[in-house]
């Protein structure tokens, strides 16, 4: 069995390929993480065009700075998500600060509240996307389709105890979305910022 702290092989290989300037590696990385990056950016910014811009910025940053990622610090997915969050929050702060200055209404506390709310929402999205498929399926049935645990069990063809276990674990994971820390801190995706 591999060491617990050993980075995944794909992550190490991808970082090495990017460092060598392999354009195909960037394409592969984009194919794997573009929907994650765009989704997180959109969740923070609430704007399609701004999310598109952040997506371009993230992949440009990865291409221009492949050594900024250290596989020993955590998964590449986590690093990309953290980078996305940081750039999206910077953009949100800049646009909201400009709006505060021009319009003259609202406060810096309102801005920080908006940033915190966007960060928690983005973290929750990341958690749901990252959780094991059986937990995600149970949560989707229970919350989006308004199924109780008995209906969820029947839909998933599992026991009621298993459905309750999956829902409980999924909710426990989601509850960590609020543990993002102080205003402006990284979302705590588990990797280096």
Automatic annotation (TrEMBL):
PANTHER family: RNA POLYMERASE ECF-TYPE SIGMA FACTO, RNA POLYMERASE SIGMA FACTOR SIGZ. NCBIfam families: sigma70-ECF. Residues 29-94 form the RNA polymerase sigma-70 region domain. The keyword Secreted does not apply. Gene3D superfamilies: 1.10.1740.10, Winged helix-like DNA-binding domain superfamily/Winged helix DNA-binding domain (1.10.10.10). It holds the Pfam family Sigma70_r2. Keywords: Sigma factor, Transcription, Transcription regulation. InterPro entries: RNA_pol_sigma-70-like, RNA_pol_sigma-70_dom, RNA_pol_sigma70_r2, RNA_pol_sigma_r2, RNA_pol_sigma_r3/r4-like, WH-like_DNA-bd_sf. This is Sigma-70 family RNA polymerase sigma factor. It comes from the Bacteria. Belongs to the sigma-70 factor family. ECF subfamily.
């Amino acid at each position: 069995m591999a060491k617990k702290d050993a980075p995944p092989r794909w992550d190490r290989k991808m970082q090495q390929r990017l460092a060598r300037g392999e354009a195909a590696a960037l394409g592969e990385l984009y194919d794997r993480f573009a929907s994650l990056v765009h989704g997180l950016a959109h969740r923070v910014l609430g704007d399609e065009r701004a999310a598109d811009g952040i997506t371009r910025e993230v992949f440009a940053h990865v291409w221009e700075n492949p050594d900024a990622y250290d596989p020993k610090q955590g998964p590449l997915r986590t690093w990309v998500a953290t980078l996305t969050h940081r750039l999206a929050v910077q953009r949100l702060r800049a646009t909201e600060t400009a709006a505060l200055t021009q319009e003259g209404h609202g406060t810096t506390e309102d801005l920080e509240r908006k940033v915190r709310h966007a960060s928690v929402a983005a973290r929750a999205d990341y958690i749901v996307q990252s959780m094991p498929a059986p937990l995600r399926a149970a949560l989707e049935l229970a919350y989006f389709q308004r199924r109780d645990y008995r209906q969820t069990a029947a839909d998933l063809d599992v026991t009621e105890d298993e459905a309750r276990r999956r829902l409980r674990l999924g909710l426990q994971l989601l509850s960590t979305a609020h543990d993002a820390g102080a205003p402006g801190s990284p979302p705590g995706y588990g990797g280096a910022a």
